[in-house]
Amino acid sequence: MISNGRYSLLFNALFTLFMVGPLVVVIGVSFTPTGYLEFPPSGLSLRWFAAILDNPDFIDAAWVSLKLGIASATVSTIVAVPAALAIGREKFSGREALQALFLSPLTVPTVVLGIAFLRLLSVLELNGTFVGLVLCHAIIITPFVLRLVLSSVVGMDRSIEKAAISLGASNWTVFRRITMPLIMPGIVGGWVLAFITSFDELTVTVFIVNPSTTTLPVRLFSHITQTTDPLIASVSTVVILFTVALMLLINRFYGLDRLLMGETK
Amino acid sequence: MSFLEIKALTKRFSETTAVEDFSLTVERGEFVSLLGPSGCGKTTTLQMIAGFEQPTSGSIILHGRNLAKIPARKRGLGIVFQTYALFPHMTVEQNVAFGLEMRGIPEPDRRQKVAAALDLVKLSHLAKRLPKAMSGGQRQRVALARALVIEPELLLLDEPLSNLDAKLREEMQLELRRIQQEAGVTTLLVTHDQSEAMALSDRIAVMQSGRLMQLGTPFDTYETPKSTFISNFLGKTNCLNARLVSTTGTASTLVINGIEVSGPSVNLLPGDVMASLRPERIDIVESSDGHTEAKVLERIFLGDQWLFRLETKLGELLVVRRNRGRREAEPGENVFIVWQPEHLQILPASRESA
Question: What's the gap in Å between the CA of A196 and the closest CA on chain B?
Answer without folding.
Answer: 28
